[in-house]
Amino acid sequence: MSPTIDTKSPVVHHDLPTPDPESPTRTRQPYKLSTLCVAVENPSMKDQYGSSSVPIYQSATFKGVGNEYDYSRSGNPTRSHLEHHIAKISSAARAFAVSSGMAALDVILRLLRPGDEIIAGDDLYGGTNRLLTFIRTHVGVTVHHVDTTDPNAVIPFIHPTKTAMVLLESPTNPLLKIADLALISKEVKERAPNAIVVVDNTMMSPYLQRPLEHGADIVYDSATKYLSGHHDLMAGMITCNRDDLAKQIAFTINSVGNALTPIDCFLLLRGVKTMAVRMDRQQATSQLVATYLHSLGFKVHYPGLPDHPGREIHQRISDGNGAVLSFETGDKELSEKIVGSTRLWGISVSFGCVNSLISMPCVMSHASIDPAIRAARGLPEDLIRLCVGIEDSSDLLDDLEHALVDAGAIALSAQQNKYVRVPPGHAALNKAVEQLAIGSSNSRGVEHEWFVSAPGKVILFGEHAVVHGVTAIAASVDLRCYGLTTPRNDGKLSAHFNDINDFQAEWDIESLPWGASAPLGHHERHPEDLDQQLIEAIHAGPLRELGPDKDQARNAALAFLYMYIKLTNAERPSVHFDVRATLPVGAGLGSSASFSTCAATALLLLSHRVTLPSIPPPISAEHLHLSHHGRHALEKHNAEEANRWAFIAEKILHGNPSGVDNSVAVFGGALTYNRPGFGKPSGMESIQGFGSLRFLLTNSKVPRDTKKLVAGVGLMKQEQPEVVGSILDSIENISAQAKRSLADSTEFGRENLLRDLSVMISENHKHLVSLGVSHPSLEIIREKTAAPPYNLSTKLTGAGGGGCAVTLIPDDFSDTSMKDLLSELTECGFDPYLTSVGGSGLGILSPYPEHRNTSAKDIHPGQVTPPETPDEANTSDPGDSIKASFETKSLLELTGWAQNLGKWLYV
Ligand code: PLP
């Protein structure tokens, strides 16, 4: 039995009255739509137990005779609740829930008879088009597709008796064209009084547009979209205010049996409650995305843009611009690349979900429309549709920008210092030129060298205490590791780790254990866990001959080979990888992280996972960190990618690294770090704004056992919790104060910085001594530097028990004193390094010819600044000389020489 419909009763709108009655002084305000969405309340269907969520009546039949419900095809209480709720938010008297949006249209089209005519839009959803074609060929209904954005185009097709239905969408999907629903409804009613106006409102949802208020007779929604919001159900909703139509619709649903199931009704009701918040957020982000793409010069279809042709009409008939937009790139292949390059935007048909989606309608949702018809209706083959979700807008914009860069649709402009659109047609060409110009590895043919470098790190404050939840402060040191890949092109891969006992090895590329590792897609990230099968295969294969005395070299080679196999499966470039460092290895200064960063970056460049723009990036003159001639020119996403892989290498080398060392190696500067699990925010935070500081790093050359030292402090904490607790508190205070001082870029702050740091360094060292982690050699360094005339503050850094000490050098410290101090320390058998802290992170020697210093071959040691104007006349490839000189330069010359090869692109 279907619920009875009294066609004579007046239309009742289901608004939920506010509690107050109307009075002469206060007119009754109906609740806002966002409130109505949440308030699922049907006064005529009170729940016997007062349940706050509508129960699922998962029952096909209901007992008794003559009751409201007997059989769920005809009616079901959960469905009634949903229908009542949707009617309420749609300005409708009646609503019907069916199994999909297409089922809704099917029910509506059954109102037609053979010989009837329909006027429908020419930019309709593909499935709608398919069903209209079906009724045209099987039912004998004539379908006129017209441009409904122009009411004048509709009028000639309206026939006073034959026109039975006008089917509209606004905005249309995917071109976001606007139809004046109010005006067309009026024109149709005047010319064909019996015709019914039907609107597919899926793109808007009742929250943003209620076409019944503008003269439509029937409205339907694919509730699979915004009404549900989670892509976890299929549903369609039909709403109307005419009881005659409602009666026929109810009859069809009962006859064919396509009503929505109780459980889906329940899920849909739950989805509707959050529709307003979802839509508000999705719309706000859509506006940002549309504006961003528009500013880049793409043709963007979104009614929220000022130049949208239907904007004025849309603002009149709707309450918002929705969360679907589309844009044209001018090149189908380019569009395919963009769609394939996003990570956060999922490639999927449909829209309205909390997750953001990207698609190409012509190859996906609208593929069912004949290509010739698509062309005739002006649906561009290169069109990309974006369906915006509720993710953080900056993440979505970042991901989109990443994809546009990757696909070659935009590139950094040196002149404008921002991304600009690459003219259509040039994108593919530019990408190809870029690959050629800046070093490609194609079919194993590698033509160029890549020269990369990364700094070491020093822990300024908080070592040991960090293990127990105290904030540590780490900074980059201007002692760097350098990595150079040189083409071999003979099917071999080789590596030379100069600072690990001059380790050298060569492998036949084909004999590497490729089969032990599943290839990683170009945009795929490495999973959190290491691939143990690959690690074992590398140990058993290429590294099998390395004896136990070669532990350090074996680990470095393992990290290198692991990344080579994971990253370059497609290219398998034949190269030689050379590494040298001005940083002491194993002295607690992050040498392994700077090695990891160099190896990861070189391999990312060879596998094109890190690509540089085809136009030389702008190199800003100023840099936050004043040392190392740093120039910000590497894009953030490249830095993030290098950091992710450097962390993987660190995992191979250390098992469970904190990620601090590789972050400092990649990003430079200084950061604070808190370990997770101590009830306060964990993770890293960069400290911005301080100029680099001069430090003396003195390597005691006493080897340490970090694990033992850490365990020792742990034991002491167990035995004397109060003593250790108060030491940890004091170190926490020092870290907090140091962070404030370092970040204070005011003149006053800078003036006091050196003095304050000096005091904090001495205090922190005393605390570390109390924790028992110093060493006689470190105390000698401390005493020597503290003695007059030097009067300097020194502390151990890292695990202690040997390793390095750091000494702050004030700006006015004389050269003579420096020389004397260096020789005193050297005489004691220590290795002192004068360096600066807080300088640049990862650097790549610029591959652009205009950035190379062609007179690099004639560089004199000690010359550190490249000439302002490179010698234009000399066009020989400076890369020729890099490998030979790299291997032979003395440690003292290395930095200056590398610097003078040309401009470096820094993070
Ligand atoms: N109408 C529009 C505008 C659509 O986008 C869709 C589906 O994508 C439908 C109708 C059909 O809805 P359903 O997939 O729920 O059957």
TrEMBL record:
PROSITE patterns, per the entry:
CYS_MET_METAB_PP, GHMP_KINASES_ATP
Q: Please give the Gene Ontology molecular function terms for this protein.
A: ATP binding; cysteine-S-conjugate beta-lyase activity; metal ion binding; mevalonate kinase activity; pyridoxal phosphate binding
What's in the keyword line of the UniProt record?
Amino-acid biosynthesis, ATP-binding, Cytoplasm, Kinase, Lipid biosynthesis, Lipid metabolism, Lyase, Magnesium, Metal-binding, Methionine biosynthesis, Nucleotide-binding, Pyridoxal phosphate, Steroid biosynthesis, Steroid metabolism, Sterol biosynthesis, Sterol metabolism, Transferase
Q: Which residues form the GHMP kinase C-terminal domain?
A: 754-812
Q: Where is the GHMP kinase N-terminal domain?
A: 569-605
Q: What is this protein called?
A: Cystathionine beta-lyase
Which family does the record assign? Belongs to the GHMP kinase family. Mevalonate kinase subfamily. Belongs to the trans-sulfuration enzymes family.
What organism does this protein naturally occur in?
Answer: Lentinula edodes
Q: A Gene Ontology biological process annotation?
A: transsulfuration
Q: Where is this region: Disordered?
A: 1-29, 846-882
Q: Which InterPro entries match?
A: Cys/Met-Metab_PyrdxlP-dep_enz (IPR000277), Cys_b_lyase_euk (IPR006238), Cys_met_metab_PP (IPR054542), GHMP_kinase_C_dom (IPR013750), GHMP_kinase_C_sf (IPR036554), GHMP_kinase_N_dom (IPR006204), GHMP_knse_ATP-bd_CS (IPR006203), Mev_gal_kin (IPR006205)
Subcellular location per UniProt equals: Cytoplasm
